[in-house]
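Can't paste images in this forum, so I'm doing it all in text. The chain is below; anyone willing to post the predicted structure tokens underneath?
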Amino acid sequence: MVVKLATYNIAFKGLKEGNHVFDYHIADSFFEHFENTLVDQADVNVRVTLEKRSSFMSVILDLKGTVLLTCDRCLEMYNQPVQNKAQFWIKFGENREEEDDVIWLPPEDYQINVAQIIYEYIILSVPLKHVHPSNEEGKSSCNPEMLKKIEEYSRPHEDKSDGRWEQLKNLLNSN
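Text version of the structure:
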């Protein structure tokens, strides 16, 4: 796994101070390196902008593309557009204070692998509810046959009461 994800290593020790841009194309093979993933197929472009300073680095991650998901409503596959932009900082030292948007690295490190970070931000950009987007007319683009079945089985059924239960209820009411 480490060798195949080496493409996502950014060696920052040799970089001059200032902005540096790294572009990545995330495809299906990327997700093979992660267990129990929500996404198996994708077409996502990621731009990592690293601003190197003497004591820290600022990283802006900008991603846009599509991932293939299973619709929760009709169970067919569809392309879900995803987009996310995030900023975090990389600091060096042994004093690793707990901060959400800071990655602490030992002072002797010379590179960072951004594969896990890219993966997490792609997954975070996937909506909780996976449903086909509506078409131009505002109608669902789900499988029409499946929508008919859902409607058929979700209609409230007529209350067919059992006469024996009514007699038992009468016993309770008379006491």
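The longest helix spans residues 163-174. The longest strand covers residues 77-92.
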